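Here is one such protein, fold included:

. . .
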Amino acid sequence: MFYWFTDQDGSRQRKERKKTVSFSSMPTEKKISSASDCINAMVDGSELRKVRSNSRVYHRYFLLDADMQSLRWEPSKKESEKAKIDVKSIKEVRTGKNTETFRTNGINDQISEDCAFSIIYGENYESLDLVANSADMANIWVTGLRYLISYGKHTLNMIESNQNNMRSSWLGDLFEEADANNSKHISICAAVQLIKNLNPGLKNIKIELKFKEFHKSKDKVGCGVTKEEFIEVFHDLCTRPEMYFLLVQFSSNKEFLDTKDLTMFLEAEQGMAQVSEDTSLEVIQSYEPSKEGQLKGWLSLDGFTNYLMSPECHIFDPEQKTVCQDMNQPLSHYYINASHNTYLIEDQFRGPSDITGYIRALKMGCRSVELDVWDGPDNEPVIYTGHTMTSQIVFHRVCDVINKYAFVASDFPLILCLENHCCLKQQRVMFQHLKKILGDKIHMDPPSPEDSYLPSPFDLKCKILLKGKKLGTICISSEGEVTDEDEGAEMSQRMNIEADELPSIPLKKFQLSKDLSDLVTLCKSIAFKDFPTAFQSQRHWELCSFNEVFASRCASEFPGDFVNYNKKLLARVYPSPMRIDSSNMNPQDFWKCGCQIVAMNYQTPGLMMDLNIGWFRQNGNCGYVLRPAIMREQVSYFSANTKDSVPGVSPQLLHIKIISGQNFPKPKGSGAKGDVVDPYVYVEIHGIPADCAEQRTKTVNQNGENPLFDESFEFQINLPELAMVRFVVLDDDYIGDEFIGQYTIPFECLQPGFRHTPLQSLTGEVLPHAWLFVHVAITNRRGGGKPHKRGLSVRKGKRSREYATMRVLVIKAVDDIFKTAILPLREATDLRENMQNAIVPFKELCGLSAVANLKQCILALSSRLTGADNNPLLVFNLKDQYPTMEPQGQLPDVLKKVVTTYDMVSTRGLFQVFRKKIVDLYKSAMAFHENLHDMAVKEGLKGRKLAKAVESFTWNITILKGQADLLKHAKSEVQENLKQIHYAALTCNLSKDGPSGSTAGSESRTRPRSLDAIPEKATGEDNKMLRVN
């Protein structure tokens, strides 16, 4: 068996792998959509694995007694009366590997989180730890047992009273509207169309076939469809079991969500802030299809499905759909969406040129396009790739298109990369066309010699910048001589040479018109020599273009210099001339070095273009994305090739669960298997080398309509601001796996919670009705970004504590400052990690995984905090800013542990004290910055030793600033923890003063966000950003 993997150059290579199959979702199985289905399945019984603390695993057959009073298993060495658990003794049913037995078991890593569950029973809170053969089966047992715990002997009555009443009444109303003649039946054609309207992703032929199968099974003659038949076929085709299992997790064991249940779901899972019941009612009114549900404020399974498939629950953060980043920084501080040979719509050697290339690129938000201009017939310049067989476009037509579409997708500046190969006569024609057609849009103000940086995108809104050759200031004639830029000649030469060592291409000279030269202001093209020369003499308005091969060498041999170069200067990288097929380089290879303009062949789809399109979706798709702070600050250390954590940036843990898919199409061009699809999903992480990773699900056989995967993955992200997540769906085939769809999204744009992800085709079009349903959680988020939106800390096993190190410069005065920072840095690290490590055992005691937030912890704990008299055993005193737990009598041992661990979680910490120490040391060290070179020379440092001292200074400054930022965010994290606890206590009526003081429902609906930080008196330091000049 083979599958395709992506090589460094983006090409797909074949690699052997073992075929793996998931049997959790075979299309012939009955869909579970009610508690009754779960109870019936439990009475029939199923094989489960019983896990013991000694790492022994026993295969047993578990079943529920017909009277629903006991849970039994067989075979067993115990007497039959002892190999059982009374349902009434069950305290809790816990999902995942969240008991001591699971956590300490030697085979923990071999057990799927989604297939594991535990039954907590008896006065001593014993646990029966079980593993099902599939996530579906685990969900059945968990759901059924929770119903039994809630309703006991009344379970059947409760189920019958709730059995699909809202769905039946809603579908009944629709059927009666379609049955205009009141004949009690409608035609199959009408029934098919009705279901198709409700679920557009279904194929007509499948719906029709289902009706015919249904009629055949009942020996029915005739083609009319009754109301009952219509409802049953809808139930079979449109029920999503994964939605049902999710609904009952929050429905207090009902078949619907009321406003309180929905409020809990929106806050605890979807990350919305302080949601009121009025907010939940708005959601119900918007998405609940049944009249009964709308009147009573209930959200049925169909309404819940509608909501989770709505734009509100898409994976992409809606805040990023508009410009949301600071657009007032210098142009060099942004990544700029760029196109290479924009005029081409196929390959670079023989392909046609067309103005549609410009239209498409500009509509997609591209902010840098290329014009390769040559002498044309009738004194009209033309655009094409010189020295090749590509076709030609008249220059003025391209100018017309640019004038029309330049600012359709974005108001921010457009860069025209002008490769001028024309004679002086046709250059004058070029100038006339540019002035006449583009006019005042062309930026004409010369750069100020006093400035050190380029203007900002905001300052240059609706302006066109010309990048090209420029005559020197001493030139007073109407033309002058400059060196030529000819990428086409480079490609042509390389195509004719078959050798490993290619000779350097001699620079040609040509005459440049002064009028055309004067149009170039902020993007003067110059040749790159080396980094020392550039640091010494290159001006901020001068721009170098790097061949992909040369840029890769710079990134490999001088990663730190390349990053520092791009802090002030613009760098453009264009594809290797050897890419005559117009294939694309990996833009991440150059973004990680800070290169702003990475020119892509827009006409060539695939992984690399997916990354480019996905990356620039953020910030309103305006074509400009602010680079990470560590790449912008003048004094900061960052190496593009880092394979470890980044100094001063706290790694994040990304938890992704691939739950299911909907309506996967057959791959284009495949025919061997007919309409059969065997899908599996890859989750890829793209970013700095330390972050690049991929994991895949098992294959689901013969199900492209609603395959259930139920697999969870975890990735460590060391530089979140530069990371991207790519979901790829492939069809498993013994001949060669085939592409179904993909979606690429920046890490910073992920929304937490249960989300639908739209799939796109190979060429970037949205696949109709094709989705991935996923769960996203981001934990241990500190060190920048949006901590209020994410989850909380996670402990990754026991490991030795790592402390930041200070490097020696061999400059005594400076080294003395950094030496005094060693102890505060160590103490600050201990403070942060102690707080982090306290959270994990608290989550474990609450019976939840590391992915959970503290609001979910208190909600899970609430069921155990009620005594025999229905009074709480523990309450939260919310009068103080920091909520405290107060026992209301004698506590069981397990709750005593909860109280002890909670006290550690709710500590205020000394974050501000340590942060002030580190900030003061940072400022003291920065006082030496401007004179550092002279001080090093006085100490006798020169050459490599001098460069090493400067690098060590930059490293130490980065560590100090990073640790100060981490402490600030750790303080915010503690406040976030306490805020979540505060609102959870109010929600669960566990506050000391009762629910009367609740404010959880007083806020109006807001966009998805977790709870705001507890307000505190701001200190001067917290209100100041650490700025490096």
Summary: Residues 331-489+509-619 form a domain with the TIM Barrel fold (CATH 3.20.20.190). Residues 374 and 708 are 57 Å apart (CA to CA).
